[in-house]
Design a protein that fits this description.
Layout lengths: L1 H12 L2 H15 L8 E4 L2 E4 L10 H11 L2 H17 L2 H7 L4 H34 L5 H4 L4 H24 L2 H25 L7 H9 L3 H8 L8 H9 L12 H24 L3
Antiparallel strand pairs: 1-2
Helix pairs in contact: 1-6, 2-4, 3-6, 3-8, 4-8, 4-9, 6-8, 6-13, 8-9, 8-11, 8-13, 9-10, 11-13
Length: about 280
């Protein structure tokens, strides 16, 4: 494993674009702390986002992993360009000539995906811990380290997403087209969801629920379901909703079913990547 990771690290180290994108990505993860600086002071209206409880333990684990997941696109670019460069610079062929098997080649990419996901989780954990100690109203040990399943869900989400990107990189061979493929697939899932909403329109209020149940098995939707939007959990949002006659009834927890679906898709993407590489003439 270490040998394979060392090979990938050597390639990334000499790729300027990958280095820049990685720095931007981890910089963005760290910049979550800047949310604490958001203030509005307009006459009698004074609003400080950090005072609304977004950095309270254990809510911070949910909020920060949800926000951090929005930045995963930058590492996706690293993953797909990593594969595109293998074809452009003939390093894939050279690695195979030097004795690396196709299975080891795919494993080296997958180990890199896991490493990126693991470092991302560590970054989010440390940033969240520091922000929580500064701003949280609750600092009891049992509260601080509850709801850590959101970090695990974040880890699984990144592995699934980057594995999808790895598969597209091998399938299409060009980074720009691979990213476009991911965007096209996202649009397809959106259109399918609209189709399901139309099919279930007679269920009235249950149409969205039925559509979500049908969509949960699609890869990007399954990844999205791992960490549900956290804003409607805030007390301030619930108070406003009550005043206008709305009442949020939602399960925000990480579901085992969603984790299982994403892991299955991850296995499928890695297997298909290996299958393509095995069958393709290099």
């Amino acid at each position: 494993m270490l040998r394979l990771l060392n090979i990938e690290f050597h390639k990334l180290k000499h790729n300027r674009a990958s280095r820049v994108l990685s720095i931007i990505y981890f910089g963005l993860l760290t910049s979550i702390a800047l949310i604490a600086a958001i203030k509005f002071d307009i006459g009698p209206i004074k609003f400080h986002l950090a005072e609304q409880g977004i950095f309270n333990f254990p809510y911070i684990w949910h909020f920060n992993t949800y926000v951090a997941a929005m930045f995963k696109f930058f590492l996706l670019l690293v993953i797909v360009s990593m594969m595109a460069n293998e074809y452009s610079y003939k390093t894939l062929k050279q690695n195979l000539i030097d004795g690396l098997s196709k299975k080891e080649f795919i494993l080296s990419k997958f180990y890199t995906v896991i490493l990126f996901a693991g470092v991302s989780v560590l970054f989010v954990f440390l940033v969240s811990l520091i922000l929580g100690f500064i701003y949280s109203d609750f600092n009891e040990f049992s509260i601080i380290f509850s709801d850590l399943e959101y970090l695990f869900a974040f880890f699984i989400k990144l592995i699934g997403f980057f594995s999808f990107g790895l598969f597209l990189g091998i399938l299409i061979k060009r980074s720009a087209f691979a990213v476009a493929g991911m965007i096209v697939w996202s649009i397809i899932e959106g259109l399918v969801k609209l189709y399901f909403l139309w099919i279930f329109k007679d269920f009235k209020d249950g149409a969205l629920v039925k559509a979500n149940e049908a969509m949960q098995f699609f890869p990007l939707e399954a990844m999205s379901n791992l960490i549900k939007e956290p804003l409607s959990r805030l007390g301030a949002v619930k108070s406003v909703a009550k005043q206008i006659g709305e009442n949020f009834v939602k399960d925000y927890s990480v579901q085992i079913t969603d984790i299982f679906i994403v892991l299955i898709w991850t296995a499928i993407f890695i297997y298909l990547s290996y299958y393509l590489l095995k069958k393709r003439d290099l």
